[in-house]
Amino acid sequence: MQYEWKLCPACMDLISRLNFQVQNPHSIKYNGTIQGLKYIWRTEGLRGLFKGNGTNCARIVPNSAVKFFSYEQASKGILWAYRQQTGDEDAQLSPLLRLGAGACAGIIAMSATYPMDMVRGRITVQTDKSPYQYRGMFHALGTVYREEGFRALYRGWLPSVIGVVPYVGLNFAVYESLKDWLLQTNPFGLANDNELHVVTRLGCGAVAGTIGQTVAYPLDVIRRRMQMVGWSHADSIVTGQSKEALQYNGMIDAFRKTVRHEGVGALYKGLVPNSVKVVPSIAIAFVTYEVVKDVLGVEMRISD
């Protein structure tokens, strides 16, 4: 059944990427994307491949809404300030200004939904052998708050903030700048009536997603590992025989211990399954957003 290992990007993200990122180097269970998926299929079945997906869906809806809305508002504010400073009423956003607007949008959206992202990671890595089970997103949120305090819900927030600046910022900046360049140069006749085909826009989104997630990925690894700190009920996939990997005193300490014990390559664990998920998801998100606005009759696009 070869098709079983070509499951949806959500499976790749929720299981392979997170488990690669947080597994203990002394207790390796996943040596590759395909092997990791096969192991989970064999030990937990189809349900294990979608573990935490409900929480992810509940998180992604408000996250995307806040992100796109914040980007438009930030773009308007930055463009207004830029025109005031330069005195040019016809000035447009440069790639650098788009990067700033995207960074603002990413920070706002990430901060608004961070607790849900935090418990999603914990729900994903727990197994049937774990001595304690989170029954769902709300149960996990309540349990973490009760047992570890409010601050635990935002553990790993700092590397997330730092990481979201290049990640979301580059997504928007590359996507919009690449679209503008294609409209201006129109190579291979890709533009028609000052409009790009959906497939071309999907390509722009794929390029943006690839660049953004590659640059910011090490911070995502550190964020996931810091989210597991203090979780005494983590499965052995995370803790192994030693809990040293879970004891971080901050972002810098997490970087230092990860590189010292596992090498620089550990900062890119799970990059392949993450790319399989991120590249199409970012592309589809951008294009869907613009298409839905067309259907609803909203004339303003992201880059307007």
Automatic annotation (TrEMBL):
<dbReference type="GO" id="GO:0015748">
    <property type="term" value="P:organophosphate ester transport"/>
</dbReference>
<keyword id="KW-0813">Transport</keyword>
<protein>
    <submittedName>
        <fullName>Uncharacterized protein</fullName>
    </submittedName>
</protein>
<dbReference type="GO" id="GO:0055085">
    <property type="term" value="P:transmembrane transport"/>
</dbReference>
<dbReference type="InterPro" id="IPR018108">
    <property type="entry name" value="MCP_transmembrane"/>
</dbReference>
<feature type="repeat" description="Solcar">
    <location>
        <begin position="93"/>
        <end position="181"/>
    </location>
</feature>
<dbReference type="GO" id="GO:0015711">
    <property type="term" value="P:organic anion transport"/>
</dbReference>
<keyword id="KW-0999">Mitochondrion inner membrane</keyword>
<dbReference type="Pfam" id="PF00153">
    <property type="entry name" value="Mito_carr"/>
</dbReference>
<keyword id="KW-1133">Transmembrane helix</keyword>
<dbReference type="GO" id="GO:0005743">
    <property type="term" value="C:mitochondrial inner membrane"/>
</dbReference>
<comment type="similarity">
    <text>Belongs to the mitochondrial carrier (TC 2.A.29) family.</text>
</comment>
<dbReference type="InterPro" id="IPR023395">
    <property type="entry name" value="MCP_dom_sf"/>
</dbReference>
<keyword id="KW-0472">Membrane</keyword>
<feature type="repeat" description="Solcar">
    <location>
        <begin position="196"/>
        <end position="295"/>
    </location>
</feature>
<keyword id="KW-0677">Repeat</keyword>
<dbReference type="InterPro" id="IPR002067">
    <property type="entry name" value="MCP"/>
</dbReference>
<keyword id="KW-0496">Mitochondrion</keyword>
<keyword id="KW-0812">Transmembrane</keyword>
<feature type="repeat" description="Solcar">
    <location>
        <begin position="1"/>
        <end position="77"/>
    </location>
</feature>
